[in-house]
Amino acid sequence: MDALSQSAGETLSYFRQMSGSAHVISLRERQPYDRVLAVAEKLMERADIEYAEPDRIFEHTLVPNDPLYSQQWHYFGTYGINLPTAWEITTGSSSVVVAVLDTGITNHVDLSGKTVSGYDFIADSFVANDGGGRDSNPSDPGDWTLSGQCYPGSPARNSSWHGTHVAGTIGASTNNSTGVAGVSWGAKILPVRVLGRCGGYTSDIVDGIRWSAGLPVSGVPVNTNPAKVLNLSLGGLGACDATTQSAINDALAAGLSVVVSAGNSNADAANFSPANCNGVITVGATDEDGWLSTYSNYGPTLEISAPGGDFTYDTGILSTLNTGTTVPAADTYVGYQGTSMAAPHVSGVIALMLSVTPSLTPTQVLEILQNTAKDFGEAWCNTTTNCGAGIVDAAAAVKTAQFYNWSGGAMITSSQPVVAVARPHVGTDVASYNAFSSGSLTSYVPMLFKQSFDGTYNSALYVQNVHPFSTAYVSISYYTSSGTLTCTVTDTIAARSSKGYWLPSVGCLPTGWVGGAVVTSTQNIVAVGRPHVGSEVMTYNGFASGSTTSYLPMLFKNAFGGTYNAAFYIQNVHASNTANVNIKYYDESGALSCTVTDTVAPLASKGYWLPSVGCLSSGWVGGVEVTSSQPIVTVARPHIGSQVTTYNGFASGSTTAYVPMLFKNAFSGGTYKAAFYVQNIHPSNNASITIQYYDSAGNLSCSATDTISSLASKGYWLPGVGCLPDGWVGGVVITSSQNIVAVGRPHIGAQVTTYPGFSAASTTMYLPMLFKDAFGGSYDSAVYIQNTHISNLANVTVSFYNANGVLSCTKTATIAPRATLGYWLPSITTCNP
After folding, report:
1. Which helix (H) or strand (E) holds 62?
2. Does residue 417 lie in a domain region?
3. Which of 746, 750, 770 is nearest to 424 (CA)?
4. Is residue 268 flagged as an active site residue?
5. Which of 466, 553, 661, 833 has the fewest C-beta atoms lying within 10 Å of its C-beta?
6. Do 112 and 33 fall within a single domain?
């Protein structure tokens, strides 16, 4: 146990043996889950431990104390909407408003305090049944009718209190020891009265739609509480008319999700409006057994289904109502059936989704609902042509919604050593950087700008706290290119979270500033720099420490028709001593072209633009070796035509290099290509290298051998590698008789990016800067993971944490030996946790 305690950094004791040959180990005292997880992760680093996991304590999921909740099978039953698990994440937000376009609502105790000011849009006094036309009182006076009042032979009907029932399902007060529960009990309800005696006119409904969205309606006060969701539990036979479609289009354009009941005629919903209008989410009804309700409309018009009840088989949908047969009387709770009851389940779930990610668009909302839907209880419905994508699953939808319009970082854990590369897409530009195998208390970021070089050079800096449970207190010190401390900014970063700093917003930095940053922290961190050079964006890794030698294997001066150039930056990481540096430029053959000496002040960052290096001839291609009297870090910045990219310099080489993200005429009509460069860093011996190309499944596609002269750099353009087929995606493993360094250079369409090859792999990796549909949808990311083991499968878990350190999504996968797995984050539509 002493050895295990030393590995864990905690005092451990043996508790008991389990079934399955496992053992229970105890800590000295009860600790938070994240802290226990951190201990388990440390134990997993031992070769003699197959797996180590927290002995989790499980509890029942959230069950509200409303006395009638046990009768609401539609929330928690086998074919309910899986609501209790969703409530563990959120119960809704008061900032999310759901408009209920219906008969209005009564003054029900379970709706008290749940509404915002609504409006009565019924203009016809007979339909309104409240003594007048439009007014600001959306309460339901009752919609009872006498025989023949609606049309010749129409039956007499009691008041339905339909809007009150719908509103209760969406957002009744919950956990208040009263009545029933609502789906999104933290949301607010906007009552919009458009239905009265004998129904409601299209002209009133479309005005209600626009007003709910915060759009102007003539003669009506402005809605100060615009909705994000519209529930239309109404409809009739016929096509979607232009008037209704126009109003729906306006609501969609304003960012509202429009939820519509499919209708109760056991017919094709394509023949019913507004269910057949474009852009709406049309909802069918299911019963307690997961079958489409016998009355529900069906067909390809349905996007999704939800519990609507079926009195033939169950007790219906229990919600708020009134006992009055004509005018309002006492509060009560009654089970109804209908697609009108199904739609508010979906509206409530959308409100929960918007509570965790308010920026979701209507298109994204529908995508999530459909991708996370549950299977039906009958085979006939398990197809999108009859009943929609499935039964809405609140828990899965809310969990997945957390990972939309998202920015944050990731942690990769694996049963075998892996390497990983992140590829952020920042607007139209593509960048890349390596995953970190560990963090450190200091990180150096040597190439940063604020509105410099005619104001077109800017930068962002991202810092991730890799500690599983402790907040990091960070200090970011900005040093100019001459080593002068400009200013220091302090901040806190939550456990597992990533925080970005956009230098144009750092007020203590002057316009035109050029330099580097030193980030110190109370917890281990990793950092990434993201320069914006004109219209180009690139990324590189921050450094945990410096070295007295650095290698940069891919550099150019007016090469390939004069369109390939490069810069590189050197930061002296010593706090007080000046660094005397020797920069040796070696061409592709390994011949020394020239040597330049310079001094770099303490903590200063200095840049070298190769077209200005006079001792290099035009057309030069090669690499650089930098030696220094003090520890330094370096970053290269190749300019490939109009593209600009970056990669980290290497402190040393190794006899094996992994380059995990490469392409040959792949994706988008063959527009994904790649090159990689290898530098032999031995000062006198040739390197005999073997390049093994493994496809994304881990199959060895082909091997090639080559010789690289001492200190020479050689490039390999994959479209010129004849043994690889077009469309190839994978990674390479390079073995060498001498120490080498390698750089990958993917060409993603018209964009070019670079990243360093890896000399070693790790079972834990960190990626501090990732995006999914972020910043208006223009920031996205891909992640590539290569299993470096030659024979064992790697079981990997990728945990995505948002900017606040909250676990947003988990993906698990198995990667074959030598295989490369790619995740394009916008394509992740379901999460595992």
Report:
1. none
2. no
3. 770
4. no
5. 833
6. no
